[in-house]
Every structure is written in C-alpha cells, then in structure tokens.
Amino acid sequence: MALIWETEQDEVRYEVRRAGQTLRLFANGVQHSEFHPKRLLTGSVWDLLWLPALLHEPARFRRVLVLGLGGGSLIPPIRKLLNPDVLMAVELDGVHLQVAREVFGIDAFGVETWQGDAQQWLREYQGEPFDLIIEDLFAPSNEQVSRAVPADAGWQACLRNNLSEHGTLVMNFGDWQEYRDSSASGRRAMKSFASRFRLSCSDCHNAVIAFTREPARSIHLRRRIAVTPALSHAKAAARLDYHIRQLD
Questions:
Q1: What does the alpha-carbon distance between residue 89 and residue 70 come to, in Å, rounded to a whole number?
Q2: Which residue of 35, 77, 126, 226 shows the fewest CB atoms closer than 10 Å?
C-alpha cells in the first residue's frame, strides 16, 4: 500500500495508505477506517456497525448519531441506505476528523461533525432522541483493538436515554470476551430493549452488539439485504462478510 498522507501527534503516528482506490487510516499501525469512493462495503467490521439498521425498515431511522467517527467509513452507507434527515457524528481525535473531512471527503455526505469527548457530548445533549446510535469508541493510541470507554451501566443508561422509542443501539467491542466481561452482556442491559444480536466477520475479532427497542429476527436483515440493489448484486454479495446471531 502506498503512503499518501502522514503525521505524528502526541506519540501517535497517523498514516493514510492507498491500495487501488481504497484508502485506509492507521494510527500506530492499527487500522481505524477504510474508504472507497465507489463502494459502500468494506468487507470488514465497518459494515457490521450499520447493518443492524436493516433489522427494521430503513425509513424509520430519521435521526442517526455516530459516536467515534474515525475517518468516516460509516457515513456513505448510512447516507445511501438510510438517508436520514439528521446525521450527526462526534470524534475526539482531531487528526481522525481532519482525515475524514480533507482526505475521505465526508462533508459531501451531509453529516454534522463535532470534535469532542463522546461521553461528555451525549451527557450534555438536550435535543431530540436518535433512532440509531452507533457507538464505536476506540482510542487511537491503542496498539491493540480494545474499547476506550467502559461499557458500564451508567454509560449504557446514557445511550438508552437518548434513543427513541423504536430505536436501535449498536456497540462495538474489541472481541467477544471484552463484551462478556462488560455489563452490556447482562440481563439488566436489556432494560427497555426487546432483542439483542451479535454481528461478526471473518477478518476481525470484534464483537458488534445491536440492541433493538422493538422485536427483530436475523431473517429480517437477510431479507432486506436481498431486496436492496446496492447490497444484493453479485459483487456486493461477494464482498459482504457478516454473521449474525440472536442473543436473546
């Protein structure tokens, strides 16, 4: 992969590398984002973060919040497949936000962005609730894939309190054990939720957990993928790598 952009800040080395038309953002050697100007699918963990929206009708997700934007890999598919009225994102790392805007060009997708601490931002937020919250908080200084924010009961309550009555919450964990060790895996985490799912893919260890206010089944996701042209054509079907399992 060709190095096309780099900087170093606070002992973190940031690089953007190109492979064909694919751009990848790395921090201390760990890949944090991927972008392709003509592809919605990465074939990796970033697809798992927005896929749970298809457990229900996409039209219901009018307000979407992304906590942990990174380089903005999620923004093009959210805009294309959900096209929400409000699309907002919070990112702590200024370099990630710079790459998202200046290298990946996410401003063209109609997203409002803030630089700041996602926990503080959401705890101080006073606006309307969101129909979809994607929580993907990983520190750029980590040399292994692990969460930057504990998935404790207090943080889960904050996320839940800012979710609409029919909303979906998606949380990313470094691996299955990190999820199992958190309070997000317990029964209390299901307060006000009807269903819980794990999504995974073959090229990473992440455990992406989706909580839905209203009952859902994995077959609903598969059926919507099958009738969505951007996801069901042969090239997309070959690239989309996911496994979904209902946990409750």
A1: 10
A2: 126
Does the structural domain 40-246 have CATH classification 3.40.47.10?
A: no
pLDDT truncated to tens, each residue of the chain (248 aa)? 899 999 999 889 999 999 999 999 998 888 889 999 889 999 999 999 999 999 999 999 999 999 999 999 999 999 999 999 999 999 999 999 999 999 999 999 999 999 999 999 999 999 999 999 999 998 655 555 678 899 999 999 999 999 999 999 999 999 999 999 999 999 999 999 999 999 999 988 999 999 999 999 999 999 999 999 999 999 998 999 999 999 97
Closest CA to 25 of 123, 90, 102, 130: 102
CA distance 27 to 141: 7
> Both tokens of residue 193?
């939720």
